[in-house]
Structures are given as C-alpha cells and as structure tokens.
C-alpha cells in the first residue's frame, strides 16, 4: 500500500499538469493573452464543414472540426515555433514546406534548386518553339516602334550553388532550360534583344564588394537590385532607343543589421522561436541625374516577384511615364487601371501603347515564360496553327484537372479553405490549380 503511494502521487501530479495546460491553453485561445507572434508565410487554416446529415455520417464534419479546433488551439503558434526551432537547431532542417537549409546558414527555396539541377527540363523542341515565338513577337513590336527585351533573372541557387546540400547537387543532370535557351539564341537568333543577368551576376560574384544575395533571402538584395540590375536595365533601354538615359547616382551608403524586406524573406517563413544570427547588409539612397528635357518612356513588364521591388521603386518610376506590371501574366497592376478589364481587345491595345515591353523570368519560370509569347501573339492575331493546336490541347488538359478537382472532395475542400486568404473566387482558384497541374505535365520530359 505504501509502496504504491508515490506512484499515485505522480499520477495525480501529471493529471493536474495536463488539466492546467489544457485550461491555460483554453484561456489563451479565449482572451489572446499572453500574445503570440503571428506566423509568417503562406498557409491555410482549417475550417469546419457545415453540420449536415451527409457530412455527419460520412465523417467529414468530425474530421474537419477536429482540424479546425487544432488550428485554433491556444499557444499553437508558440508550439509550432518551438518545434521548428528544435528541428532547425538539431538537424539543420526546415519544417516549412519548400525551404532547404544549406551550408553556413544559407537558405534556399527548393524550386530554385530543382531547376538548377535540371528537374524541370523541357524538350529541346519546345524551348526552340518558345524562343521562335519570342523572336516573332519582338519583330512585330519593333515594326510598331516598341522595343522588346527578354531578361533572364538570376537565382540564388544558380549564383551560389556551393552552399546547396550535397544530396541535391549529386542529382544534377545535363543542360538546363537556361543553358539551352542561351545556346538557341546565340546560334539561331543573334538579333534577339536579351539581358543575361545570370551570367552578369555570376561574374559580379567574383569581384563585387557587396552581397548579391543575403543568407536568409530568396531574392537579390535591395542593394544589388538597384546598384547592379536597375543600372544595367536602364543603360540597355537607352541603347535600344539610341538615347542617353539618366545616370544612376548613389548616396549615403550604410550597413545595417536591420534588414529591409525582402532581404530575409525565407528566414521569416521558417517561423523559429529564437532570433536569427544577425547579418549585416548594405543599403543606400539612389537617384538618377536627369535633365529637364529627358523623355519618359512607358514600360510594360511581364514578370514574377523579382520585379516587385522595382515596380514600387521611386527611383525607377521617376524615369517612366507609366510602369505597368503583368504579374505572372495573370494579375495586372496598377489594379485601379486594369480593374475588370479582361477583354482581349483592350489587352491588345494596351500591349501596343508602351515604348518598352520587357519579359523577365527567373529560372523556375523559364519553362513556360508565363505563356506570354503565345498569348501576346494570339492577342495580336499572329498565332499560327501550331500555337492554336497547343492551346487547344492545353485547355483540354486544364478542363480534365478542373473536373478531377470537383470529383475529389479532399482536394476541393482544401481549395475552398484558401478562398478567403487568397481573396479569389473558388472558380479562379480551381482553375489556377488545374493550370499548375497542366504545366507540371511538361516538366522533366526530355527528347
């Protein structure tokens, strides 16, 4: 009897601790005290399905309610940060999807690594067709007095492959989409206007006194964007127009541990409990030495997130009469200008009302170039039989995946949970998912 007494005490103690934690968690959920740091990154909280007879007997209501309850429990974000911290500190692994912890504190997005090692390699014939469309578009626009530029934007994996974990580098295959694009252009389309920022940054890496990428960021640093890319782009635009564009001036160079967005964007999405080791980066004020009579061209940029910083840059915008941005060739900015304007006739006219049309893609988007070359040719009435056949097949596969989503309750329910956070209609999100699946069909295939 006496020998079992310590065991009974321990049982009661553990029960008391469990009940206390349960009560404390419930109080935190109810009153949000103490406060918690919000998790960073793109994620979707679970939502409970409506209580119906069908959902009850199928078990869907119980399953969705449990998931929603778990996502709303008190101290959830703190526990997630503690788990992520342990995983990162002990095993140098990221708990967040798509983030790879490299050597010496360098972080990467796995999509860029997969592209660098050639996992999204397209057929050589498809890449040739893509450049042929680009060249055809350039010639048409040039005849209209519009300058076209194709820009190969860099990636951290391409510029700093030495910090990628060896398990990825051992999978590296032959030429990538980028390698073959450059070869095709140089051999078959030497008059194509393009800027190879990948090659430029690869050379800069050897001599530049300033970081091109931060350890915890996926985009080029704020400083590298302005000092190296913006300056090069403006110079190239001036050479095409046969005009001397304003010269970039740098002021107030300073180094800071207080990083500006997006210099630590990957690190933020790790959602760790402790602060990261500090990294010091350069920042400066930039301006262009302009003459009162300088002409301001209108620019249409088709790109991904790598252009977002330039789109909002006061220095860059000071050179332009308008700066329109077709993000992934889907979402168009300024929103107030493009709101509700999806008519092909309007988009065609808008395309022809700029002095420059620039298509800029990072390596993860080189496989399809946002489908802009084909779309633009179609808008201009220049699409040939090959483009029409390809588009018909593409639409057929997209519809296949749309039907598959509607027939898959789990998949459909997951997309429904994204409607509020994405601020898009259910139909638009379903189509986005279907288009993504159709694109994945073509990656990793070789002739």
Describe, in plain words, how this protein is organized in 3D:
It is a single chain. With 447 residues, this protein is of the alpha/beta class. Among the domains are: 123-262 and 274-378, no CATH class; 384-441, no CATH class. The chain has 21 helices and 10 strands. It has a 6-stranded mixed beta sheet, sandwiched between helices. A two-stranded antiparallel ribbon has the order 1-2. A hairpin with a 5-residue loop joins strand 1 and strand 2. The longest helix has 27 residues, at 5-31. The chain is globular and about 95 Å long. The model has no long low-confidence stretch (mean pLDDT 84).
What strand order characterises the main sheet? 4-3-10-7-8-9
What fraction, in percent, of the residue positions are helical?
40-55%
What is the makeup of the main sheet?
6 strands, mixed
Number of H- or I-type helical stretches: 21
**What is the CA-atom radius of gyration, in angstroms?**
26 Å
The residue ranges in which pLDDT falls below 50 over 5 or more consecutive positions are none
Strand content: 5-15%
| Content-based structural category | alpha/beta
Mean of residue pLDDT values = 84
E-strand count:
10
The termini sit apart by: 79 Å
The outline comes out as globular
């Amino acid at each position: 009897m006496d020998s079992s007494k310590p065991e009974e005490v321990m049982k009661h103690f553990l029960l008391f601790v469990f009940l206390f934690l349960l009560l404390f968690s419930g109080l935190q959920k109810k009153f949000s005290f103490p406060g918690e740091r919000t998790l960073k990154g793109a994620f979707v909280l679970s939502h409970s399905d409506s209580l119906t007879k069908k959902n009850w007997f199928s078990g869907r209501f119980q399953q969705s309610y449990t998931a929603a309850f778990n996502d709303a429990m008190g101290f959830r974000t703190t526990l997630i940060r503690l788990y992520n911290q342990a995983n990162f500190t002990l095993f140098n692994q990221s708990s967040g999807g798509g983030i790879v912890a490299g050597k010496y504190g360098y972080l990467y997005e796995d999509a860029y690594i997969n592209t660098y090692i050639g996992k999204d390699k397209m057929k050589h014939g498809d890449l040739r067709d893509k450049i042929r469309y680009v060249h055809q578009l350039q010639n048409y626009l040039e005849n209209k007095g519009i300058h076209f530029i194709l820009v190969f934007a860099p990636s951290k994996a391409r510029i700093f492959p030495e910090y990628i974990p060896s398990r990825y580098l051992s999978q590296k295959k032959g030429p990538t989409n980028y390698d073959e694009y450059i070869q095709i252009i140089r051999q078959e389309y030497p008059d194509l206007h393009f800027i190879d920022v990948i090659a430029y940054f690869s050379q800069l890496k050897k001599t530049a006194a300033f970081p091109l990428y931060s350890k915890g960021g996926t985009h080029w640093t704020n400083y590298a964007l302005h000092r190296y890319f913006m300056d090069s782009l403006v110079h190239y635009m001036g050479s095409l127009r046969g005009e001397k564009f304003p010269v970039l001036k740098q002021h107030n160079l300073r180094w800071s541990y207080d990083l500006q967005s997006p210099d630590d964007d990957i690190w933020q999405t790790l959602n760790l409990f402790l602060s990261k080791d500090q990294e010091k980066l350069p920042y400066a004020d930039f301006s262009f030495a302009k003459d009162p009579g300088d002409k301001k061209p209108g620019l249409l940029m088709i790109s991904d997130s790598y252009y977002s910083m330039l789109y909002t840059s006061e220095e860059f915008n000071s050179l332009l009469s308008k700066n329109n941005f077709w993000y992934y060739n889907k979402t168009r900015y300024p929103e107030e200008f493009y709101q509700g304007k999806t008519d092909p006739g309007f988009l065609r006219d808008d395309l022809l009302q700029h002095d420059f049309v620039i298509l800029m893609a990072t390596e993860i988007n080189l496989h399809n170039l946002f489908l802009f070359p084909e779309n633009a040719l179609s808008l201009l009435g220049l699409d040939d039989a090959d483009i029409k056949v390809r588009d018909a097949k593409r639409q057929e596969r997209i519809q296949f995946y749309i039907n598959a989503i509607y027939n898959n309750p789990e998949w459909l329910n997951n997309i429904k949970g994204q409607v509020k956070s994405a601020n898009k209609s259910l139909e638009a999100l379903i189509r986005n998912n279907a288009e993504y699946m159709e694109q994945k069909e073509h990656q990793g295939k070789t002739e």
